[in-house]
Amino acid sequence: MDRLSALLTHFSVRAGVFFSGSFCGISAMDGSPRGHIHLVRSGRIKFVLADGAEADISEPTLVFIPRPYHHRLQAEADDQADIVCATLAFDGGAGNPLAHALPDYMLIPLASAPSLTRVLEWLSAEAVGEECGRVAAMDRLFELLVIEVLRELLAHKRLATGVIAGLADSRLGPALTLMHDNPVRAWEVAELAEHVHMSRASFAARFREVVGQTPADYLVSWRVSLAQKALRKGRPIALVAQDVGYESPSALARAFRRKAGTSPRDWVRSQGLDVD
C-alpha cells in the first residue's frame, strides 16, 4: 500500500534554492507566498517565530515550514552558521491538502532522523561543489527531501492528528488511501470499515478523532481540492464535476460552496482565471 503517491501525484512540491553557505545577520521571511525549508548544516542559528517566540538551533537541524509563515533567521559572526535555504511551493498553494495537514513549522534534529541521511549527504555535497547544474540539482534534492520527511512522519507517527496521522494509522491508512486513489467512488462508512476490519461505529469514531473530520466530510474535502486543481488548469466545470465524482455541476457547486465558501465559478474568477 502506497500511502503517499496519490497525494504527491496530485499535489507535488517544487523547491527553489536561494541561499547556500556561511550566514551572518538577519534574514526575514515575512511576506513570502511560499513555504521554506532551511538546512542548518553546522554552527548556531536563532529561529524567530511569528509570535515572537525563539528557538536556538545549535546542532544540524532541518527547519521545515510547509506553508507561508512569518519567521526569520538570525546569526552572529561567531556563530559560524552554515545553512542551505529553499522556498517550497506545493501545488494548490496554502490550501493544498498535504501542506494543510502539516504543522506551521517543524524543527527536525538530523540526529533524530537517520532516514534523511542519504539525501542530506548528497545535498551537502552539491552545496559545496561546483558541478554544472548544481542549483537545479539542489532544487530536486530538496523536493526529494520533503518526500523523505513525509516518510519519516509516517514511519514514526510523529503527528497526532490530521491526514498524515491518519495515513500513519494502521487501520485508517488503508481507508484513506482508498479514497485518495478512487475519489469518484461514493465510499460508504460501512464499506471502508469492513475493508479495514473494524466495526462501522469504531471506524467512524477513530477517523474523526485522528483525522479531525468524518469520513464523508473528508471525501468531500479531497474532491474539492482535486476540483480546484483541475479548475486552475482551465478544465470546464461540467467535466470537473464528473472527474471528481459528482453527477452534475450543481452537485459540485453545493460541495464546493460548503468547503470553499463560494461557487466554483466565483472561485475561478478570484484566482484571476477565465470561466469556461
Summarize this structure briefly:
By secondary structure, the chain is α+β, with helices and mostly antiparallel strands. The chain is 45% helix and 20% strand.
Q: Would you write up a description of this structure?
A:
- The protein has three domains: 5-155, Jelly Rolls (Sandwich); 163-212; 216-270, Homeodomain-like (Arc Repressor Mutant, subunit A).
- The chain is globular.
- A five-stranded antiparallel beta sheet has the order 1-8-3-6-9, with helices on one face.
- The longest helix has 22 residues, at 134-155.
- The two termini are 37 Å apart.
- The chain has helices at 5-10, 97-100, 117-128, 134-155, 163-168, 172-181, 189-195, 200-211, 215-232, 237-243, 249-260, 264-270, and strands spanning 13-23, 25-29, 35-42, 45-48, 54-57, 61-65, 71-75, 81-90, 106-109.
- Helix content is 45%, strand content 20%.
- It has twelve helices and nine strands.
- α3 (117-128) runs antiparallel to α4 (134-155).
- A hairpin with a 5-residue loop joins β4 (45-48) and β5.
- The chain has 276 residues and is an alpha+beta fold.
